[in-house]
Amino acid sequence: SDPVFNFSCKLWLYLPSNLDVYTSILICGFYVVNETKLGVFTTDTAAEVLTSSLTKVFLPVIYIIVFILGLFTNSMAVWVFLFRTKKKHPASILMTNLALADLLFIIWLPLKIHYHFNNNNWIFGEPLCKVLVGFFYGNMYCSTIFIAIISVQRYWAVTHPLSHKQTNQVAVCVSVCVWIVVWLLTTPLYLYDQTVKVANLNITTCHDTIRLSQNYIPVGYFLSMGTVGYVVPCVVCVVAYLLTFRSLRRSRTASSSNNKKKKAIILMVIVLVMFLVCFTPSNVLLMVHYSLLGAEIQNEAYSFYIVALCLGSLNSCLDPFVYYLISSEFRQNLKNMLKCCSERSAQQERISFTPKKASSSETTTSPTSTTAKLDH
């Protein structure tokens, strides 16, 4: 009889003894039982997740680790690429953009950390929540696309070693296009309410719930973004590295370069495994969750998704180590920078421990006056 139920009320009337089936009418992440002027009322399962130590302790702790490590390593990587690398080439240009994407992803994590520590209660308003969500997903998918482009660039460098040095302009144009396309693709996140009042918990969630009248937007959007931002880059990475591996196996080189080939193959395997491990679980769960939501089928995938998404963010901390393995120039510049910093700190320590020269008044003090002072 309550008009706010609309279509969901009809399902409830047909299934009065099965509240779980009724709750398949959903929201963005967790299930909503009812929506009133006071806010939405979630199911007991959703309430348990929103009040559990998983979301209030585990997730923010992982994000703190990502923030501390990622901020330091990616800031150092950006500094090396921009100010220490004299000769720019396609690989360094693409890796600079990847480091910037990771850095933009990381600098917004303190807001997400505060949100989880504050019992999943958002206090910074709707506009800032939309900005957080937009940067979170936008930069995450920027990272996947740039990793895919780097894999293509490495394949091109192996198969066309004489021409890859002349494609700096192509790398710049591709990077600009990626940033423009990804930020255009994130605009739907600003078109619906990201903050929702959960009345039965007396909290305001950011992105974890959505109003029933707006649920068609995230279902279509995240299925599309999962395809464009993960499936396509994943296929590109796998194909590019398989072709690179085949090219290295077929090439006839001197025995002295066999070690380099082995190192290149090991590096390809490491990058590919890192990509699959970090991004596959969260994106597969995301697409499964929203596919089931589109079919109005109840599922608990969202709870596993937020954990996989959190663990996948560790990729932002691992990327700088990939730069170190891929680029010998990056390794050399990093070592030089650290060497300069250590020499500078050692010099400052030597200066601070150097004894001061005795003043002229002290040097001219007579023995008798010294004796008088000691006797006194």
From TrEMBL:
One MF annotation (Gene Ontology) recorded for this entry:
thrombin-activated receptor activity
Where can this protein be found? Cell membrane
Bias (Low complexity) occurs at 354-376
Which chain regions cross the lipid bilayer? Answer: 12-33, 57-82, 94-111, 131-150, 170-192, 221-243, 264-290, 302-326
Q: Which UniProt keywords apply?
A: Cell membrane, Disulfide bond, G-protein coupled receptor, Glycoprotein, Membrane, Receptor, Transducer, Transmembrane, Transmembrane helix
Coiled-coil parts of chain: none
Q: G-protein coupled receptors family 1 profile domain: which residues?
A: 73-323
GO CC list? plasma membrane
Question: Which Pfam families does the entry mention?
Answer: 7tm_1 (PF00001)
Question: Which Gene Ontology BP terms does the record give?
Answer: blood coagulation; phospholipase C-activating G protein-coupled receptor signaling pathway; positive regulation of Rho protein signal transduction
Which top-rank group of organisms is this from? Eukaryota
InterPro entries from the xrefs? Answer: GPCR_Rhodpsn (IPR000276), GPCR_Rhodpsn_7TM (IPR017452), Pro_rcpt_2 (IPR002281), Protea_act_rcpt (IPR003912)
What ranges does the record give for the region Disordered, renumbered to this chain? 351-376
Q: How does it sit in the membrane?
A: Multi-pass membrane protein
Q: Which SMART domains match?
A: 7TM_GPCR_Srsx (SM01381)
List all disulphide bridges recorded for this chain. Answer: C129-C206
The answer, when asked if Calcium is one of the entry's keywords, is no
- Gene3D superfamilies hit by this protein: Rhodopsin 7-helix transmembrane proteins (1.20.1070.10)
Indicate what this protein is called per its UniProt record: Coagulation factor II (thrombin) receptor-like 1, tandem duplicate 1
Q: Which organism is it from?
A: Astyanax mexicanus
